[in-house]
Protein backbone atom coordinates (compact mmCIF):
# COMPACT_ATOMS: atom_id res chain seq x y z
CA UNK A 1 0.00 0.00 0.00
CA UNK A 2 1.45 3.37 -1.03
CA UNK A 3 1.99 6.03 1.59
CA UNK A 4 0.50 9.38 0.58
CA UNK A 5 3.12 12.08 0.17
CA UNK A 6 2.98 14.95 2.64
CA UNK A 7 4.28 17.48 0.10
CA UNK A 8 2.44 17.55 -3.24
CA UNK A 9 2.86 19.99 -6.10
CA UNK A 10 -0.13 22.17 -6.87
CA UNK A 11 -1.79 21.04 -10.10
CA UNK A 12 -5.03 21.95 -11.89
CA UNK A 13 -6.46 18.69 -10.45
CA UNK A 14 -5.56 19.97 -6.98
CA UNK A 15 -7.72 23.04 -7.55
CA UNK A 16 -10.61 20.83 -8.70
CA UNK A 17 -10.27 18.76 -5.51
CA UNK A 18 -10.26 21.93 -3.39
CA UNK A 19 -13.43 23.13 -5.17
CA UNK A 20 -15.06 19.75 -4.48
CA UNK A 21 -14.16 19.94 -0.76
CA UNK A 22 -15.56 23.48 -0.60
CA UNK A 23 -18.81 22.32 -2.24
CA UNK A 24 -19.06 19.38 0.20
CA UNK A 25 -18.50 21.73 3.15
CA UNK A 26 -21.22 24.10 1.91
CA UNK A 27 -23.65 21.21 1.40
CA UNK A 28 -22.90 19.88 4.88
CA UNK A 29 -23.44 23.30 6.47
CA UNK A 30 -26.70 23.74 4.52
CA UNK A 31 -27.96 20.33 5.70
CA UNK A 32 -26.84 21.17 9.24
CA UNK A 33 -28.76 24.45 9.12
CA UNK A 34 -31.90 22.70 7.84
CA UNK A 35 -31.63 20.08 10.58
CA UNK A 36 -31.28 22.82 13.16
CA UNK A 37 -34.37 24.61 11.81
CA UNK A 38 -36.36 21.36 11.89
CA UNK A 39 -35.37 20.76 15.50
CA UNK A 40 -33.22 17.68 15.02
CA UNK A 41 -30.92 18.53 17.91
CA UNK A 42 -29.88 14.90 18.53
CA UNK A 43 -28.29 14.55 15.09
CA UNK A 44 -26.53 17.88 15.48
CA UNK A 45 -24.96 16.82 18.76
CA UNK A 46 -23.50 13.72 17.10
CA UNK A 47 -21.89 15.75 14.29
CA UNK A 48 -20.91 18.74 16.38
CA UNK A 49 -17.18 19.29 16.59
CA UNK A 50 -14.91 22.11 17.61
CA UNK A 51 -14.09 24.57 14.88
CA UNK A 52 -10.73 23.60 13.36
CA UNK A 53 -7.85 25.98 13.88
CA UNK A 54 -4.69 26.51 11.83
CA UNK A 55 -1.73 24.46 12.97
CA UNK A 56 0.74 26.91 14.54
CA UNK A 57 3.66 24.83 13.21
CA UNK A 58 2.58 25.59 9.62
CA UNK A 59 1.95 29.29 10.09
CA UNK A 60 3.01 31.53 7.19
CA UNK A 61 6.37 33.16 7.84
CA UNK A 62 7.61 30.37 10.09
CA UNK A 63 10.29 27.86 9.20
CA UNK A 64 9.31 24.34 8.22
CA UNK A 65 9.37 22.16 11.37
CA UNK A 66 12.58 20.17 11.87
CA UNK A 67 10.64 16.91 11.72
CA UNK A 68 9.57 17.72 8.13
CA UNK A 69 12.81 19.18 6.78
CA UNK A 70 14.19 15.71 6.08
CA UNK A 71 11.02 14.76 4.19
CA UNK A 72 10.94 17.92 2.08
CA UNK A 73 12.13 17.25 -1.50
CA UNK A 74 14.69 19.90 -2.50
CA UNK A 75 13.23 20.07 -6.02
CA UNK A 76 9.96 21.43 -4.54
CA UNK A 77 11.69 24.57 -3.27
CA UNK A 78 10.03 27.73 -4.66
CA UNK A 79 7.24 25.75 -6.31
CA UNK A 80 3.53 25.99 -5.44
CA UNK A 81 2.50 23.09 -3.21
CA UNK A 82 -0.86 21.93 -1.96
CA UNK A 83 -1.46 23.36 1.49
CA UNK A 84 -0.41 20.79 4.08
CA UNK A 85 -2.30 22.38 6.99
CA UNK A 86 -5.67 20.60 7.34
CA UNK A 87 -7.32 23.87 8.37
CA UNK A 88 -6.92 25.14 4.80
CA UNK A 89 -8.41 22.02 3.13
CA UNK A 90 -11.60 23.93 2.32
CA UNK A 91 -9.91 27.17 1.33
CA UNK A 92 -8.30 28.02 -1.99
CA UNK A 93 -4.73 28.40 -0.81
CA UNK A 94 -1.32 26.99 -1.63
CA UNK A 95 2.07 27.21 0.01
CA UNK A 96 5.57 27.85 -1.26
CA UNK A 97 8.62 26.83 0.76
CA UNK A 98 11.66 29.04 0.20
CA UNK A 99 15.31 27.95 0.17
CA UNK A 100 15.62 28.96 3.81
CA UNK A 101 12.65 26.63 4.57
CA UNK A 102 10.27 29.52 5.32
CA UNK A 103 6.61 28.79 4.64
CA UNK A 104 4.69 31.27 2.47
CA UNK A 105 0.92 30.96 1.96
CA UNK A 106 -0.90 32.41 -1.06
CA UNK A 107 -4.41 32.47 -2.48
CA UNK A 108 -5.04 30.00 -5.30
CA UNK A 109 -7.57 32.29 -6.94
CA UNK A 110 -6.61 34.23 -10.04
CA UNK A 111 -4.42 37.21 -9.22
CA UNK A 112 -5.66 40.47 -10.77
CA UNK A 113 -8.49 38.33 -12.21
CA UNK A 114 -6.05 37.07 -14.87
CA UNK A 115 -3.07 35.18 -13.52
CA UNK A 116 -3.74 31.65 -12.35
CA UNK A 117 -1.31 30.01 -9.92
CA UNK A 118 0.18 28.24 -12.96
CA UNK A 119 0.89 31.39 -14.98
CA UNK A 120 4.66 31.79 -15.68
CA UNK A 121 4.55 35.48 -14.73
CA UNK A 122 2.96 34.72 -11.37
CA UNK A 123 5.40 31.86 -10.75
CA UNK A 124 8.31 34.18 -11.52
CA UNK A 125 6.96 36.74 -9.07
CA UNK A 126 6.62 34.03 -6.43
CA UNK A 127 10.21 32.97 -7.02
CA UNK A 128 11.48 36.52 -6.53
CA UNK A 129 9.28 36.97 -3.46
CA UNK A 130 10.40 33.82 -1.65
CA UNK A 131 14.09 34.28 -2.52
CA UNK A 132 15.36 37.49 -1.01
CA UNK A 133 18.59 37.57 -3.04
CA UNK A 134 17.10 38.41 -6.49
CA UNK A 135 14.98 41.12 -4.88
CA UNK A 136 17.93 42.54 -2.94
CA UNK A 137 20.10 42.53 -6.07
CA UNK A 138 17.38 44.39 -7.96
CA UNK A 139 17.18 47.05 -5.24
CA UNK A 140 20.98 47.38 -5.08
CA UNK A 141 21.22 47.83 -8.85
CA UNK A 142 18.48 50.47 -8.75
CA UNK A 143 20.32 52.35 -6.00
CA UNK A 144 23.58 52.15 -7.92
CA UNK A 145 21.85 53.40 -11.08
CA UNK A 146 20.45 56.43 -9.26
CA UNK A 147 23.90 57.45 -7.97
TrEMBL record:
Top-level division of the source organism's lineage: Eukaryota
Biased composition (Basic and acidic residues): 27-37, 44-61
Spans annotated as Disordered: 27-61
Protein name: Uncharacterized protein
Protein's organism: Magallana gigas
Upper lineage: Eukaryota, Metazoa, Spiralia, Lophotrochozoa, Mollusca
